[in-house]
Amino acid sequence: MVEPMPTPFQPGDALSDEDLALAIELDARGLAGMAAAAMLQRWIPSIGSPGDRPMAALAAAEVCIACAIRDGGEPLEAAQQLAAAHPAFADDFMAAALGFGMPEGDLPGDLVPGAIVLGRWRVDRVVGSGATGTVALAVDALLGSPAQPRHVALKRFESDATGLALRHARHELSTLLSLPEGCGPKVIGFHADRAGSAVLVTAWEPSSPPNHLAALPEALWTMDRIHACGIAHGDLKPDHLRLRDDGSVFLIDWGSAGPADHAGRTLDADRLASIVRTIGSSTGTAPWIVAPAAWLCTRDQLGLAATWLAACAPRRHARRLLRPIVPAAAAILIAALFVWLSGPWNRTPAEAAIDRLRARGNLIEVVQGPDGAPAGAWLAWPRFDPAVPARERLVFWIDFKDGLEVISRKSPGSLSPATWPESSSQSPAAPQ
Q1: Which of 61, 209, 279, 357 would bridge 363 by S-S if both were Cys, CB 3.0 to 4.6 A apart?
Q2: What are the angstrom distances between the C-alpha of 182 and each of 107, 185, 244, 248, 319?
Q3: 371 or 52, which is more confident?
């Protein structure tokens, strides 16, 4: 019996993004037993581009993941499988997976000290506010303790009349998840409410902005790695470069990130050149150090600029400067060893003597001794030439003694070229 086709999704008068998200959640309640992929295909015509309907796309992703794990499974694994099948919704599936297990409901209107966000993170203090959101330092009340508090950074993307808050949040989340390891804050959680606001939770690390040129090489190397993976920051400032206690660098505030095309790389490079000049001027660094580094930055040669600044502070960056030298030195040593083992200076005196005779072109045969080492050789003079009468040729027996060719016997030219050298009975016995 052929199963009836499911009825098309009818969102009714749900015209806004928020109304469509609610309609998807209500529709999912009557689709018990339907596969997650089938449900998503049912809603895609109404959602269109996830970037145009971020709330509806996130609602659909949450419902699909919940459906995929009904019979057991992990939200992250389900999100990865669904994202592979529907790449356009990949960011939504990852955001939904990060929000699983968090309380439902709207987010607080403001991040104020003492407020508890999503039933877990207690706000300690607000550390920054920008055009797209507010950043606060908070304590994990669930996993931390008064003796060993665990801190996180909460970034709340404000809801506004344009409905761009969730788009900004999704964009920053997607960028952080795409960065090379250690180049950005570690994502812990993500939550969006139906009012259009969102909170991104990242790990908080003790750090400070660079205040000396010696701290900038790691920042330039890190930015070079980020560009290599196809991402440009787009809003570089000294405060966005964070120096860890171990000397490594990560970057924060990725709301303006974009592709690392020519425009994106040029903008980052110009900002870094300005940072180099500003820090160099404030610390009284010699112009012959600052100017080349800034010039290399403007040419998008961040790796060379970092190496130049590191070379000007070699004690601090000795390990990083030596890192490319060690494999190069190892390769040179291996090549030298190979050349030494295969070169003429590694041959025995007898082998060297044989090579000299062979180079003259008149070596007939080498005779091996009982130990397998060359004992002597037959040598013709002049070199074999059919035009030279046999009677005019001489055949010499050469002994090898300490690498010297010693003539021990010669025969008149009575040998036929076809019989050179003489039979083994006429050859001198090998020395015992």
Answers
A1: 357
A2: 29, 7, 11, 9, 19
A3: 52
What is the model's pTM? Answer: 0.66
One DSSP character per residue, 253-312 reads --TT-EE-SHHHHHHHHHHHHHHHHHHHHHTT--HHHHHHHHHHHHTT-HHHHHHHHHHT
Domains of the chain: 17-99 (no CATH), 116-203 (3.30.200.20), 213-324 (1.10.510.10), 346-419 (no CATH)
Q: What angle do CA 219, 307, 183 make, to 5 degrees?
A: 25
pLDDT number for residue 175: 92
Write the pLDDT tens digit of every residue in 333-384.
777 777 666 655 566 666 777 777 777 666 777 777 777 777 777 777 655 5
Distance of alpha carbon 48 from alpha carbon 348, whole angstroms: 80
Q: Are strands 374-381 and 241-243 parallel, antiparallel or unpaired?
A: unpaired
DSSP 98: H
> By three-state DSSP, how is residue 45 classified?
helix
Cβ atoms of 259 and 230 within 8 Å: the answer is yes
pLDDT tens-place string over residues 371-405:
777 777 777 765 555 566 655 556 667 776 654 55
- Using DSSP's 3-state secondary structure scheme, residue 54 falls into helix
Residue owning tokens 């190979």: 338
Task: Indicate the SS3 state at residue 52.
Answer: coil
Confidence of residue 411 (pLDDT cuts 50, 70, 90): low
Quote the CA–CA distance of 300 and 297 in Å, as a whole number: 5
pLDDT category of residue 423 using cuts at 50, 70 and 90: very low
Q: Are 226 and 233 in contact (CB under 8 A)?
A: yes
Contact between 183 and 225 under an 8 Å Cβ cutoff? The reply is yes
Of 405, 408, 398, 347, the C-alpha closest to 376 is 398
